[in-house]
Each structure stands twice: as C-alpha cells, then as structure tokens.
Amino acid sequence: MIITSVILFLKDLLPIFVLFCYLSVFFEKQKITLAFMSLIALGGILSTFALFTMAEVISDLFEGVGLELTFVILLFLFYVSGVYISLRETSPIARNKVMLFICITTFIAIEGAGFLVFFSVTEQHTGSLQNVLLGCIVGLGICSSFSALFRFLLSELKQSRYEWVFTLLWSAFLAGQASKITSLLSQVDIISTGAPLFDASRWVEDSSEYGHILNALFGYESSPTLAMSITYVIAFVIPITIRSIVKIKLSAREVAHA
Predict the structure, then answer these.
(1) Structurally, how many domains does the chain consist of?
(2) pTM exceeding 0.85
(3) What are phi and psi of 245, to 5 degrees?
(4) By CB atoms within 10 Å of each CB, which of 71, 85, 175, 213 scores lowest?
C-alpha cells in the first residue's frame, strides 16, 4: 500500500512540483506577493475539489463525455497560458497574473482530482489509513527532494549559455501535457489515434517509477500513437517558434533605435 501511494504521488502530483520548478525559475527575479500566492493556492484547491465532487455530474454531460471534454479544455487552457508565460517572463508580474493563475489552477485541478479519486477509493478498500498516510509522506518527500534538485538544474541552465536547453525542456513539458488531449478525445471516439508507432516498454514501462518521472518531465509514453506524436511535435514547436520570432523582432527593434 505504501509503494502504491508513492507511485500515485509520482504519477499525479510530481508534475505539479515540476511545474512550480519552471515557474519559480521564470519569475526568480520578480517578487510575487503572499496575497497573490494565497489566491492561487485557494483557486487550485477549490478547482480540484469542485472537479472531484462534481465528476459524476460532469461525466453525464454531452451524452456521457463531459468529463473528458472538461479535461481537454483544462489542458488547452494550461498549454496556452504556459506558452504565454514563457514569452512574457521578463514582464512585470502584474501583467502575467491572470495567465499565471489560469496555468496553475487548471493544472492543479487536472492532477489533483485524479489523485483524490485514487486516495478516496484506496482508503475505503484498504481500511488502513495509517499506511496510506505513510505512503503519502514518503511520496511527498520524494517529490520535494526531486523538485529541489530539478529546480537547481533549471536555474543553472537558465543563467548559463545553455539557456536554449531550458527552453527545450519547458517546451517538452508543455507538449507532454498537450499530447494527452489526443488520448482523451480517442477515449470518447471523437478522433482515432491509430496504432502505436513503436513500443519502448522493454526499456521503460509507463507504470514503473521511471516511467512516471519521465512522463512528468516531458510526457513519456512507451507506445505513442501517430496522432499523439503529431500533437506532441506541434505543441513542442509552437512555443519555440513564437519565442524565436519575438526575439528576432526585439533585436530588429533595438537595431532600429540604435
């Protein structure tokens, strides 16, 4: 039971820790007020519990596909706000407040609701709340330790000549989340994903600890389909392309004013 709880932390909550690692590096030189952080925390908690408690009602909407469509909308909002934040990281925090709020609350709702579902079901069936809580403590410690090391790595990359690696990692993280949209749409037969392109489970299985960590970092799937791969590539290229265009325009503007 302890191992299961730890794996669930890696699966559902580690991505949240990874997101905060990126955002803390983006706004490392800017001061975020305690009031705004409290508002974000409150929004994330409320949105998570709202999605968790209303899951059955939402799932009955749109002829039984309401829950999947809700997750699709939330993932799309997270992706758009994430791209916007990465382009406006040097802007005053006041200009990014709305997108930052959307980015964090939508992502917490997506990952947190899934964790609460498992937590409630597990506690009811095992009858041993002590083991579940112990597993949560161990999982929280692993996620905290991993995020501390990962944030240090990201900060060093951001401040070095390898900043482009940081940009690639962030784009991969966004793309990994956006690619889940194809899986959700295929579950309700809105699109057809096709057969898997390859199978990498012989090296790293999706259900393993390493599989969950890689999935949290860049959306690893051992058997990606064609539709998922296309979505991933497009979602990966968009922020890099827009960022390059913005940098070119800024450079041209500086030359013009020189």
Answers:
(1) 1
(2) yes
(3) -65, -45
(4) 213
